[in-house]
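Input.
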Amino acid sequence: MNNQVIKTADDYGVCNLIDNGILKALRAKSLTTVSVIVTHPHYKERVEKLLVLQKELKDKGFEFGIGLHFCITSGQTANENPGHNSTLLEVGNTFRTFNYYPFNKIKDVDVSRELNDQIIRLSKLIGVENIDHIANHHNIVYYNKGMFEAYAAVAAEKKIPIRTPMSWFRKFHKIDDLPDYDEKFLSGAARRGAKLGMWRKFPQTSYGNIIKRMSFATHLNLKSTDVLCEYLYGACDKELFEEFNEDVGIKVVDHSLKQFKTGKRTENIKDAQNKTAEKAGKKKFDKLERMYEEKAKSGGLSMELIFHLADSGELDPLLVGLDNFDDENDIHGINAGYFETRKRELTMIKAIDWSSFKTSLSLNYITFKEL
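Output.
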Protein backbone atom coordinates (compact mmCIF):
# COMPACT_ATOMS: atom_id res chain seq x y z
CA MET A 1 0.00 0.00 0.00
CA ASN A 2 1.36 3.42 -0.91
CA ASN A 3 1.77 5.96 1.87
CA GLN A 4 -0.21 9.18 1.69
CA VAL A 5 1.20 12.68 2.07
CA ILE A 6 -0.80 15.90 2.11
CA LYS A 7 1.11 19.15 1.49
CA THR A 8 -0.89 22.09 2.83
CA ALA A 9 -0.28 25.83 2.72
CA ASP A 10 -2.06 27.71 5.50
CA ASP A 11 -3.46 31.26 5.66
CA TYR A 12 -4.52 31.95 2.07
CA GLY A 13 -6.97 34.84 1.65
CA VAL A 14 -5.39 37.42 3.96
CA CYS A 15 -2.99 39.57 1.91
CA ASN A 16 -0.87 39.69 -1.24
CA LEU A 17 2.39 38.76 0.48
CA ILE A 18 1.04 35.42 1.72
CA ASP A 19 -1.19 34.66 -1.25
CA ASN A 20 1.61 35.38 -3.71
CA GLY A 21 3.80 32.76 -2.07
CA ILE A 22 1.02 30.18 -2.09
CA LEU A 23 0.10 30.76 -5.74
CA LYS A 24 3.75 30.40 -6.77
CA ALA A 25 4.02 27.12 -4.84
CA LEU A 26 0.87 25.85 -6.53
CA ARG A 27 2.20 26.76 -9.96
CA ALA A 28 5.35 24.82 -9.07
CA LYS A 29 3.10 21.85 -8.12
CA SER A 30 4.61 21.80 -4.64
CA LEU A 31 1.29 21.68 -2.75
CA THR A 32 -1.77 19.43 -2.77
CA THR A 33 -4.20 21.64 -0.84
CA VAL A 34 -4.67 25.18 0.44
CA SER A 35 -6.28 26.26 3.71
CA VAL A 36 -8.30 29.47 3.31
CA ILE A 37 -9.03 32.15 5.93
CA VAL A 38 -12.39 33.89 5.40
CA THR A 39 -12.27 36.42 8.26
CA HIS A 40 -10.42 39.25 6.50
CA PRO A 41 -11.90 41.94 4.24
CA HIS A 42 -10.78 40.73 0.82
CA TYR A 43 -11.22 36.96 1.18
CA LYS A 44 -14.01 36.66 -1.40
CA GLU A 45 -12.13 38.01 -4.42
CA ARG A 46 -9.02 36.12 -3.34
CA VAL A 47 -10.85 32.79 -3.22
CA GLU A 48 -12.35 33.55 -6.62
CA LYS A 49 -8.82 34.00 -8.00
CA LEU A 50 -7.76 30.72 -6.36
CA LEU A 51 -10.63 29.00 -8.16
CA VAL A 52 -9.38 30.44 -11.47
CA LEU A 53 -5.97 28.90 -10.82
CA GLN A 54 -7.54 25.61 -9.73
CA LYS A 55 -9.33 25.32 -13.08
CA GLU A 56 -6.27 26.46 -15.03
CA LEU A 57 -4.02 23.84 -13.43
CA LYS A 58 -6.66 21.12 -13.64
CA ASP A 59 -6.78 21.66 -17.38
CA LYS A 60 -3.03 20.97 -17.35
CA GLY A 61 -3.42 17.77 -15.35
CA PHE A 62 -2.63 19.06 -11.82
CA GLU A 63 -5.28 19.26 -9.11
CA PHE A 64 -5.29 20.71 -5.60
CA GLY A 65 -7.89 21.01 -2.87
CA ILE A 66 -9.31 24.08 -1.13
CA GLY A 67 -10.17 23.84 2.56
CA LEU A 68 -11.21 26.12 5.40
CA HIS A 69 -8.64 27.52 7.80
CA PHE A 70 -11.09 28.06 10.67
CA CYS A 71 -10.00 31.27 12.34
CA ILE A 72 -10.99 32.75 15.71
CA THR A 73 -7.73 34.58 16.45
CA SER A 74 -7.36 36.82 13.40
CA GLY A 75 -9.78 39.16 11.66
CA GLN A 76 -13.50 39.49 12.30
CA THR A 77 -16.43 37.14 12.83
CA ALA A 78 -18.18 35.64 9.81
CA ASN A 79 -21.53 36.25 11.51
CA GLU A 80 -22.99 39.28 9.77
CA ASN A 81 -25.98 39.85 12.06
CA PRO A 82 -25.96 43.33 13.69
CA GLY A 83 -25.35 43.16 17.42
CA HIS A 84 -23.90 39.63 17.22
CA ASN A 85 -22.59 38.65 20.65
CA SER A 86 -19.92 35.98 21.11
CA THR A 87 -17.30 35.09 23.70
CA LEU A 88 -14.83 34.75 20.80
CA LEU A 89 -14.84 38.53 20.25
CA GLU A 90 -12.64 41.12 21.92
CA VAL A 91 -13.96 44.46 20.65
CA GLY A 92 -16.90 44.86 18.29
CA ASN A 93 -16.70 42.15 15.63
CA THR A 94 -12.96 41.55 16.06
CA PHE A 95 -11.64 38.27 17.45
CA ARG A 96 -9.45 37.89 20.50
CA THR A 97 -5.81 37.35 19.58
CA PHE A 98 -3.81 34.20 20.27
CA ASN A 99 -1.62 35.89 22.88
CA TYR A 100 -2.53 34.58 26.35
CA TYR A 101 -5.84 33.30 25.00
CA PRO A 102 -8.59 33.29 27.70
CA PHE A 103 -9.91 29.75 27.20
CA ASN A 104 -11.94 29.92 30.42
CA LYS A 105 -14.12 32.67 28.93
CA ILE A 106 -14.97 30.82 25.70
CA LYS A 107 -18.33 29.09 25.25
CA ASP A 108 -18.26 25.94 23.14
CA VAL A 109 -21.51 26.91 21.45
CA ASP A 110 -19.81 30.06 20.10
CA VAL A 111 -17.12 27.89 18.52
CA SER A 112 -19.82 25.79 16.81
CA ARG A 113 -21.71 28.83 15.55
CA GLU A 114 -18.62 30.56 14.22
CA LEU A 115 -17.40 27.43 12.45
CA ASN A 116 -20.79 26.99 10.80
CA ASP A 117 -20.75 30.64 9.69
CA GLN A 118 -17.27 30.29 8.18
CA ILE A 119 -18.24 27.08 6.40
CA ILE A 120 -21.24 28.92 4.92
CA ARG A 121 -18.95 31.73 3.70
CA LEU A 122 -16.62 29.36 1.90
CA SER A 123 -19.50 27.19 0.67
CA LYS A 124 -21.04 30.15 -1.15
CA LEU A 125 -17.86 30.37 -3.21
CA ILE A 126 -16.87 26.74 -3.80
CA GLY A 127 -19.80 24.59 -2.57
CA VAL A 128 -19.77 22.72 0.74
CA GLU A 129 -19.17 19.43 -1.08
CA ASN A 130 -15.91 20.85 -2.42
CA ILE A 131 -14.43 21.91 0.92
CA ASP A 132 -11.39 19.65 1.14
CA HIS A 133 -10.77 19.93 4.88
CA ILE A 134 -11.01 22.06 7.99
CA ALA A 135 -7.86 23.17 9.81
CA ASN A 136 -7.68 25.88 12.48
CA HIS A 137 -5.48 28.95 12.78
CA HIS A 138 -2.85 28.61 15.53
CA ASN A 139 -4.31 25.12 16.20
CA ILE A 140 -6.27 26.96 18.88
CA VAL A 141 -9.08 24.43 19.36
CA TYR A 142 -6.64 21.61 20.12
CA TYR A 143 -5.70 23.29 23.39
CA ASN A 144 -9.15 22.85 24.90
CA LYS A 145 -11.34 19.73 25.14
CA GLY A 146 -14.70 21.50 24.84
CA MET A 147 -13.60 23.68 21.93
CA PHE A 148 -12.18 20.68 20.07
CA GLU A 149 -15.33 18.61 20.55
CA ALA A 150 -17.52 21.46 19.33
CA TYR A 151 -15.27 21.91 16.29
CA ALA A 152 -15.13 18.18 15.52
CA ALA A 153 -18.90 17.76 15.84
CA VAL A 154 -19.57 20.44 13.21
CA ALA A 155 -16.96 18.96 10.86
CA ALA A 156 -18.51 15.50 11.28
CA GLU A 157 -21.99 16.84 10.59
CA LYS A 158 -20.73 18.38 7.35
CA LYS A 159 -18.62 15.27 6.58
CA ILE A 160 -15.48 17.35 6.09
CA PRO A 161 -12.06 15.91 7.08
CA ILE A 162 -10.02 17.73 9.73
CA ARG A 163 -6.36 18.29 10.46
CA THR A 164 -5.25 15.70 12.99
CA PRO A 165 -4.40 16.89 16.51
CA MET A 166 -1.63 14.28 16.61
CA SER A 167 1.68 16.06 16.12
CA TRP A 168 4.73 14.15 14.95
CA PHE A 169 6.58 14.79 18.21
CA ARG A 170 3.74 13.35 20.28
CA LYS A 171 3.05 10.45 17.98
CA PHE A 172 6.37 8.73 17.52
CA HIS A 173 8.70 8.92 20.48
CA LYS A 174 11.53 7.16 18.68
CA ILE A 175 12.44 9.92 16.25
CA ASP A 176 16.19 9.86 15.61
CA ASP A 177 18.64 12.36 14.16
CA LEU A 178 16.11 15.18 14.06
CA PRO A 179 17.94 18.08 12.35
CA ASP A 180 18.92 20.96 14.64
CA TYR A 181 16.42 19.94 17.32
CA ASP A 182 18.54 17.33 19.09
CA GLU A 183 19.52 19.49 22.07
CA LYS A 184 16.40 21.66 22.21
CA PHE A 185 13.63 21.03 24.71
CA LEU A 186 10.80 22.32 22.51
CA SER A 187 10.05 22.35 18.79
CA GLY A 188 9.93 25.63 16.89
CA ALA A 189 6.15 25.62 17.03
CA ALA A 190 6.13 24.97 20.78
CA ARG A 191 8.69 27.68 21.44
CA ARG A 192 6.64 30.23 19.52
CA GLY A 193 3.57 29.14 21.49
CA ALA A 194 5.44 29.58 24.76
CA LYS A 195 6.35 33.15 23.78
CA LEU A 196 2.66 33.89 23.27
CA GLY A 197 1.64 32.57 26.67
CA MET A 198 0.49 29.11 25.55
CA TRP A 199 2.89 27.35 27.94
CA ARG A 200 -0.04 27.24 30.39
CA LYS A 201 -1.92 24.93 28.00
CA PHE A 202 0.94 22.59 27.05
CA PRO A 203 -0.49 19.82 29.31
CA GLN A 204 -3.55 19.84 27.05
CA THR A 205 -1.31 18.68 24.19
CA SER A 206 0.09 15.73 26.13
CA TYR A 207 0.01 12.38 24.35
CA GLY A 208 -2.82 11.18 26.59
CA ASN A 209 -5.01 14.21 25.88
CA ILE A 210 -4.35 14.07 22.16
CA ILE A 211 -5.31 10.39 22.13
CA LYS A 212 -8.62 11.40 23.72
CA ARG A 213 -9.17 14.00 20.97
CA MET A 214 -8.36 11.42 18.29
CA SER A 215 -10.65 8.85 19.87
CA PHE A 216 -13.51 11.37 19.93
CA ALA A 217 -12.93 12.23 16.25
CA THR A 218 -12.68 8.54 15.31
CA HIS A 219 -16.05 7.81 16.91
CA LEU A 220 -17.52 10.60 14.79
CA ASN A 221 -16.04 8.89 11.71
CA LEU A 222 -13.97 11.97 10.95
CA LYS A 223 -11.18 11.54 8.45
CA SER A 224 -7.71 12.89 9.17
CA THR A 225 -4.10 11.93 8.58
CA ASP A 226 -2.31 9.69 11.07
CA VAL A 227 0.12 12.41 11.95
CA LEU A 228 0.83 16.12 11.48
CA CYS A 229 4.40 17.14 10.72
CA GLU A 230 4.19 20.38 12.70
CA TYR A 231 7.87 20.54 13.58
CA LEU A 232 8.48 21.98 10.12
CA TYR A 233 7.01 25.21 11.52
CA GLY A 234 9.96 27.37 12.51
CA ALA A 235 12.52 25.20 10.71
CA CYS A 236 13.46 28.17 8.50
CA ASP A 237 13.40 30.71 11.35
CA LYS A 238 16.73 32.36 12.13
CA GLU A 239 15.42 33.46 15.54
CA LEU A 240 14.95 29.86 16.63
CA PHE A 241 18.28 28.48 15.43
CA GLU A 242 21.56 30.09 16.37
CA GLU A 243 23.36 28.25 13.58
CA PHE A 244 20.68 28.69 10.93
CA ASN A 245 21.33 27.68 7.33
CA GLU A 246 19.02 27.65 4.34
CA ASP A 247 19.00 23.85 4.14
CA VAL A 248 17.55 23.10 7.56
CA GLY A 249 13.93 23.11 6.35
CA ILE A 250 14.78 20.68 3.56
CA LYS A 251 16.48 18.43 6.11
CA VAL A 252 13.34 18.41 8.27
CA VAL A 253 11.14 17.43 5.31
CA ASP A 254 13.66 14.78 4.29
CA HIS A 255 13.68 13.43 7.85
CA SER A 256 9.90 13.31 8.15
CA LEU A 257 9.32 11.59 4.82
CA LYS A 258 11.95 8.96 5.54
CA GLN A 259 9.79 7.81 8.45
CA PHE A 260 7.88 6.05 5.64
CA LYS A 261 10.76 3.67 4.96
CA THR A 262 9.49 0.09 5.29
CA GLY A 263 11.23 -0.85 8.54
CA LYS A 264 10.79 2.56 10.15
CA ARG A 265 7.14 2.70 9.15
CA THR A 266 6.41 -0.65 10.82
CA GLU A 267 8.24 0.48 13.93
CA ASN A 268 6.24 3.72 14.03
CA ILE A 269 2.89 1.93 13.71
CA LYS A 270 3.77 -0.51 16.48
CA ASP A 271 4.94 2.36 18.66
CA ALA A 272 1.64 4.18 18.10
CA GLN A 273 -0.29 1.02 18.99
CA ASN A 274 1.69 0.51 22.18
CA LYS A 275 1.48 4.14 23.28
CA THR A 276 -2.27 4.21 22.66
CA ALA A 277 -2.82 1.06 24.71
CA GLU A 278 -0.52 2.38 27.46
CA LYS A 279 -2.34 5.72 27.72
CA ALA A 280 -5.76 4.10 27.53
CA GLY A 281 -5.38 2.47 30.94
CA LYS A 282 -8.80 1.34 32.10
CA LYS A 283 -10.50 3.37 29.39
CA LYS A 284 -10.20 1.48 26.13
CA PHE A 285 -10.02 3.39 22.86
CA ASP A 286 -11.41 0.42 20.96
CA LYS A 287 -12.09 2.10 17.64
CA LEU A 288 -8.74 3.85 17.62
CA GLU A 289 -6.89 0.68 18.54
CA ARG A 290 -8.68 -1.26 15.80
CA MET A 291 -7.62 1.43 13.34
CA TYR A 292 -3.97 0.88 14.28
CA GLU A 293 -4.41 -2.86 13.96
CA GLU A 294 -5.61 -2.37 10.39
CA LYS A 295 -2.69 -0.08 9.65
CA ALA A 296 -0.28 -2.66 11.02
CA LYS A 297 -1.72 -5.16 8.52
CA SER A 298 -1.69 -2.81 5.54
CA GLY A 299 1.57 -1.11 6.44
CA GLY A 300 0.34 2.27 5.21
CA LEU A 301 0.65 5.64 6.95
CA SER A 302 -0.62 9.12 6.16
CA MET A 303 0.98 12.44 7.04
CA GLU A 304 0.25 16.13 6.57
CA LEU A 305 3.08 18.59 6.00
CA ILE A 306 2.07 22.19 6.70
CA PHE A 307 3.73 25.21 5.15
CA HIS A 308 3.51 28.95 5.83
CA LEU A 309 4.52 30.77 2.67
CA ALA A 310 5.04 34.29 1.40
CA ASP A 311 6.68 36.06 -1.53
CA SER A 312 7.44 39.77 -1.90
CA GLY A 313 8.62 39.51 -5.50
CA GLU A 314 6.63 40.07 -8.66
CA LEU A 315 2.91 39.57 -8.04
CA ASP A 316 1.20 36.57 -9.56
CA PRO A 317 -0.99 37.86 -12.42
CA LEU A 318 -4.12 36.72 -10.55
CA LEU A 319 -3.36 39.10 -7.68
CA VAL A 320 -2.72 42.21 -9.76
CA GLY A 321 -5.34 44.87 -9.02
CA LEU A 322 -6.83 43.17 -5.93
CA ASP A 323 -7.60 45.23 -2.86
CA ASN A 324 -4.94 44.73 -0.21
CA PHE A 325 -4.04 45.98 3.26
CA ASP A 326 -2.26 49.35 3.24
CA ASP A 327 0.27 47.91 5.69
CA GLU A 328 0.83 44.15 5.54
CA ASN A 329 2.93 44.42 8.69
CA ASP A 330 -0.12 45.42 10.70
CA ILE A 331 -2.75 42.73 10.12
CA HIS A 332 -4.77 41.59 13.11
CA GLY A 333 -3.71 38.12 14.25
CA ILE A 334 -0.98 37.68 11.60
CA ASN A 335 2.61 37.68 12.81
CA ALA A 336 4.50 40.06 10.52
CA GLY A 337 7.74 39.03 12.19
CA TYR A 338 7.35 35.61 10.55
CA PHE A 339 7.12 36.94 6.98
CA GLU A 340 10.83 36.51 6.26
CA THR A 341 10.63 32.92 7.47
CA ARG A 342 7.61 32.36 5.20
CA LYS A 343 9.71 33.53 2.24
CA ARG A 344 12.44 31.05 3.11
CA GLU A 345 9.83 28.28 3.37
CA LEU A 346 8.75 29.06 -0.19
CA THR A 347 12.34 28.77 -1.40
CA MET A 348 12.62 25.49 0.49
CA ILE A 349 9.41 23.89 -0.78
CA LYS A 350 10.26 24.73 -4.40
CA ALA A 351 13.77 23.30 -4.02
CA ILE A 352 12.64 19.86 -2.82
CA ASP A 353 12.65 17.03 -5.34
CA TRP A 354 9.16 15.75 -4.52
CA SER A 355 9.11 13.27 -7.41
CA SER A 356 12.22 11.55 -6.08
CA PHE A 357 10.60 11.02 -2.67
CA LYS A 358 7.44 9.78 -4.35
CA THR A 359 9.32 7.07 -6.20
CA SER A 360 11.80 5.99 -3.54
CA LEU A 361 9.28 5.86 -0.66
CA SER A 362 6.13 4.81 -2.60
CA LEU A 363 4.26 7.99 -1.70
CA ASN A 364 0.95 9.29 -2.98
CA TYR A 365 0.56 13.07 -2.77
CA ILE A 366 -3.12 13.60 -2.07
CA THR A 367 -5.82 15.97 -0.81
CA PHE A 368 -7.84 15.31 2.36
CA LYS A 369 -10.79 14.16 0.29
CA GLU A 370 -8.64 11.33 -1.05
CA LEU A 371 -7.84 9.89 2.39
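The CA atoms of residues 98 and 280 lie 31 Å apart.
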